[in-house]
Amino acid sequence: MARARNIKPGLFKNEDLAECSIWARYIFAGLWTLADREGRLEDRPKRIKGELLPFDSQDVEPLLRELAHNKFLERYEVDGERFIQITKFRKHQSPHYSEKQSVIKPPPLSEKAPHIHPPNSGSSTVIKEGSQPPDSLIPDSPIPDSLEKDSGLRPVCSPSNGNGAHHFPACPVDEIIGLYHAELPMCPRITVRNSKRDKLISGRWRQVFTDGKAKAKPEGVELFREFFHFVRDSKFLTGKAQASSKDRSPFVADLEWLMSPTNFAKTVEGRYHR
User: What CATH number belongs to 10-91?
Assistant: First the structure.
């Protein structure tokens, strides 16, 4: 089943992709729509042609070889079946939370997610404009396939050391702010780090671990990505709802508002999606 994805300007300006033929560049974006949430799909050139080039005589097999040669995808085999892994798909894509988990095994040596170093300690840190991830080859935000009113943040068994003390990784505040900017460009930007904002973000970070929904840093980061993506579906939170009076501007949620305990809980419950 094809899935909706966005295309950013970086696609047309990528110098490495420019080394590929125009046909290879064309089907590369099409492969995103055929891939699952991990950027994997079956390596079946005839079927891919039927999905992406139904009205053209162009052969897909050499185009796939071309993209693989230029490191835009990896072709591999598992248990006698052939698959494709789109390179760095999860680094730049934010699949909608309603997409099903991948049933395709990863390549034998799958790429690791990039490590983002925590900022230097201090009560106030300025985040420079442009320090967030720039427009890249593959978009950060897909078009939702549906607007389901469920953030996916539900508690399960809580991890602890046996005496009630919970353990969780250090909060990646900078990374969470980056996700907020990427998923909610219509909301006010954060340009200054301060202790109040750090405390609010760290509090919600601890919450997803003490609730037991996340047990490792990647799971926690993904939950925040899903949360901000869920916020995008709310007209009220993103300034698309009509203001209560003519002399007022529509409400737009900022990061501090979203990270407050009460507002966070209400947002997760879908109170602002009606």
Answer: 1.10.10.10
How many angstroms separate the CA atoms of 95 and 267, rounded?
Answer: 20
- pLDDT tens digits, 23-58: 999 999 999 989 998 889 999 999 999 999 999 999
For the whole model, what pTM was predicted? 0.44
Q: How far is CA 80 from CA 31, 41, 76, 77, in A?
A: 22, 15, 10, 6
So where are the chain's domains?
10-91, 124-268
Packed helices 261-268 and 217-231: angle between N→C axes, nearest 10 degrees: 80
Whole-angstrom distance, CA of residue 3 vs CA of residue 146: 11
What is the Cα–Cα distance from 119 to 131, expressed in whole angstroms? Answer: 12
Can you tell me the distance from the alpha carbon of 111 to that of 155, in angstroms, rounded to the nearest whole number?
A: 30
Can you tell me the distance from the alpha carbon of 63 to that of 48, in angstroms, rounded to the nearest whole number?
11
Count of beta carbons in the 10 Å neighbourhood of residue 221: 21
